[in-house]
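Section: Multi-chain targets

For targets with more than one molecule, the full set of components is provided together so that the structure can be written out for the assembly as a whole rather than chain by chain. Components appear in the order listed by the source. The example entry contains two components.
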Amino acid sequence: MVHFARDSLDRTFGALAHPIRRSILTRLAERGPASIGELAEPFEVSLMAISKHLKVMEGAGLVVRRKDGRVHRMRFDPEAMEQASEWIERHRAFWEQQLDGLARYLEDAADESQE
Amino acid sequence: MGTQTGTSLRVTRVVAASPQRAFEAWTQPEQMRRWSCPEDARVAEVESDLKVGGRFRTRMEKPDGETYTAYGVYREIDPPNRLVYTWDWEEEAFQVGETIVTVEFHDLGESTEVVVTHEGFPAQEATEGHLMGWTSCLNQYEALFV
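Its structure, encoded as tokens over all components, is:
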């Protein structure tokens, strides 16, 4: 099994646990880098609130900030997302294996009881 | 962490047994030992105190000595229909905090559908498909920003 950094996964999942953050991430992923103002535009919350969300996402390594004079441009960094989705994939594989084992075990037991 | 929102991983299988047999196989240590292991490993230890608040622990060991130890506490026990327990790994490398596993056994007459739902990854509505979608979509963007 690959070793996952617990804190890093924690921060990733935490960062994803808000619809505004997920929306911002999707926008950055699909449309490329954007300024904070551009990112705030679709929402009815304050710029300050958006800024806080971005800080959470930066803390998780999901977005990277570039200062262009007074304009801060944010871009998406996929590495943390890949970690999180890989973690889920590995658990899916684990449960698939578990159920394979159960199915085989119960089938063998059923066969035995018919002999 | 440890919320029940969000990403729900669901895996199902139809097994050739009654819900009672399947439920027992899932919860009795001597039976668990015989099936609950990935192919390249063996179950080194199994404990299961089947009562609400009771603990379970299962340690799997690969030939190279690497271990995977899952543990948790039973929250709901409704034989033979449903089981709910917490789930985490003892090995720090695999931990992500407490998650919730629900196992349901649906009677199909001559067989049983076993449904495992693993949830508690706190990304609400961020389905696995969504995450995977992001991953592939993003690889293209990553190339632009190197």
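Chain A touches chain B through 48 residues (CB under 8 Å).
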